[in-house]
């Protein structure tokens, strides 16, 4: 959008002309919401629909877990006429309830490419955000119609399925619409809102972790979903969606210009619009002609052997590697089980563990903003490598302290805090969008879907294994995170390219040169 020349006069013109005050505040508004308020509204809506709910779902069972386990036991007794679940079976059911989240997320991520192509990014986001409401409502009412603990699984599945769709939509939509110079900052806000979601459920968990009130912990998510759907009404669809659905190149350019905060003739739009033109004209000089589709390139190396396919496959698997390394740091699993870790493995009493878990959640919120401010200034590589190294150190301390027992419970709490905070301002934030910066836009929606599904599979294995292992072998279960994270550290440093302030084609060109392959992606 063109900047009003009157607003550029600032304070000096205020005494001379009536429009001076209005111009001054317009200039102040434009400066605060640089480059445009539209991209900030879009980012906020996507963060609430994806990151916030992901954090909320992941942590919603954390604090009232003893009350919910008791309800499952009670419901089982009513169903079977008095049978009592063994501790092993109850732990298994609890683990299954937790991994319903990543399992349903995979289904949603698999459905996301079809829905985005069928309805566009905007309508898909509204639809999936609406699904949060019945998912939360079913979870809420399960307590009031016993014996019906199975409804917890049904509600969690619907809720998580919708979040799986939104996790793909949010990554793709913001990467397609955010200007390169702030793309990292916009995308890394997802982790900040994920920590807000986790904090919100922990805050609700403090008063609601009782046998009577625990269902109310699902109510805030319904309120946020309603607000988010309203926000999506005021934003443009992604240019790629406009091209796919309407074939209107002029409208797509206008939408991108609105997000960039520039005039429609601005040359900064050309690179992205050229990619959109490919969807309309099926060819462009700005992007390499690919010989294979995304599935063949990523999963069939014996077929996709041309230089371009080799580079893209290498880049895509690096993106997946970063996602999986974050899973193995244990930051996600231990955030979900923080109360259990502090109480059962660390030696704290349950009430103190609940409050400490909440305090860590509070501290995590401002910490995630560190990545928001640094990711486009310092770059992705330093934050990835330093944060992962600190995670390894924290895991070593946690492993030793949980083996020693309650005498080192303060160190256990500090190690857990360091792990959750440092991962949030480094690999945790960057892993959410880094893979999307490594694949061509023509493959973006499918590649993002495949990679996030594979990440979720790793998450299923970790989260399903940790709780039973933690109950069985106590502190030794920390090795589940420590060993793979320590092994991956040198590979993370060696493989991961810097993507800050670069178009994906530039990154791929650099990777082709490094691998000594004859592939050219930029014009």
TrEMBL record:
Entry GO CC: membrane
Keyword Magnesium recorded: no
Boundaries of every Major facilitator superfamily (MFS) profile domain copy: 43-500
InterPro entries, per the entry: GLUT, MFS_dom, MFS_sugar_transport-like, MFS_trans_sf
Predominant subcellular localization, coarse grouping: membrane
Topological category with respect to the lipid bilayer: Multi-pass membrane protein
Transmembrane intervals: 92-112, 124-145, 157-175, 187-208, 214-236, 315-334, 354-375, 382-405, 411-435, 447-469, 475-495
Gene3D superfamilies: MFS general substrate transporter like domains
Molecular function per GO: hexose transmembrane transporter activity
Protein name (database record): Major facilitator superfamily (MFS) profile domain-containing protein
Organism: Mesorhabditis spiculigera
């Amino acid at each position: 959008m063109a900047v009003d020349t009157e607003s550029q006069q600032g304070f000096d013109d205020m005494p001379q002309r009536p429009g001076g005050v209005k111009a001054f505040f317009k200039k102040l508004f434009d400066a605060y919401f640089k480059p445009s308020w539209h991209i900030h509204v879009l980012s906020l809506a996507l963060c609430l629909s994806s990151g916030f709910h992901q954090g909320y779902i992941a942590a919603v069972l954390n604090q009232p877990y003893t009350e919910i386990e008791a309800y499952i036991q009670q419901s089982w007794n009513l169903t079977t006429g008095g049978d009592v679940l063994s501790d092993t079976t109850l732990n298994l059911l609890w683990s299954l309830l937790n991994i319903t989240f990543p399992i349903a997320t995979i289904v949603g991520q698999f459905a996301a490419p079809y829905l985005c192509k069928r309805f566009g990014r905007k309508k898909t986001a509204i639809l999936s955000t609406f699904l949060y409401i019945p998912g939360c409502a079913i979870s809420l009412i399960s307590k009031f119609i016993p014996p019906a603990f199975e409804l917890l699984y049904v509600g969690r599945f619907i809720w998580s399925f919708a979040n799986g769709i939104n996790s793909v939509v949010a990554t793709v939509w913001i990467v397609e619409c955010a200007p390169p110079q702030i793309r990292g900052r916009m995308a890394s806000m997802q982790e900040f809102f994920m920590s807000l979601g986790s904090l919100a459920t922990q805050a609700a968990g403090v008063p609601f972790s009782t046998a009577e009130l625990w269902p109310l912990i699902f109510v805030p998510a319904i309120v946020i979903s309603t607000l988010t759907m309203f926000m999506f009404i005021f934003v443009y669809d992604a240019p790629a969606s406009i091209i796919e659905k309407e074939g209107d190149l002029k409208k797509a350019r206008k939408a991108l210009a609105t997000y960039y905060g520039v005039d429609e003739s601005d040359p900064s739009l050309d690179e992205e619009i050229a990619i959109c033109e490919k969807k309309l004209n099926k060819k462009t000089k700005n992007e390499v002609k690919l010989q294979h589709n995304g599935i063949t390139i990523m999963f069939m190396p014996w077929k996709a052997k041309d230089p371009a396919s080799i580079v893209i496959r290498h880049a895509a698997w690096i993106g997946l590697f970063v996602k999986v390394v974050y899973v193995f740091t244990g930051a996600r699993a231990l955030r979900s089980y923080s109360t259990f870790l502090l109480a059962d493995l660390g030696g704290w009493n349950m009430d103190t563990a609940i409050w400490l878990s909440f305090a860590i959640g509070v501290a995590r919120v401002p910490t995630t903003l560190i990545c928001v401010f640094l990711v486009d200034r310092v770059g992705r590589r330093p934050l990835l490598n330093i944060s992962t190294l600190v995670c390894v150190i924290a895991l070593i301390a946690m492993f030793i302290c949980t083996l020693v027992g309650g005498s080192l419970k303060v160190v256990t709490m500090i190690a857990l805090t360091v792990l959750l905070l440092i991962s949030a301002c480094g690999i945790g934030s960057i892993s959410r969008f880094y893979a999307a910066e490594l694949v061509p836009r023509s493959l973006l929606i499918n590649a993002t879907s495949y990679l996030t599904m594979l990440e979720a599979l790793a998450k299923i294995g970790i989260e399903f294994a940790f709780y039973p292992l933690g109950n069985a072998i106590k502190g030794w279960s920390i090795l589940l995170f420590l060993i793979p994270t320590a092994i991956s550290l040198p590979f993370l440093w060696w493989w991961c390219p810097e993507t800050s302030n670069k178009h994906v084609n530039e990154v791929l060109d650099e990777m082709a040169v490094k691998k000594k392959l004859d592939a050219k992606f930029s014009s």
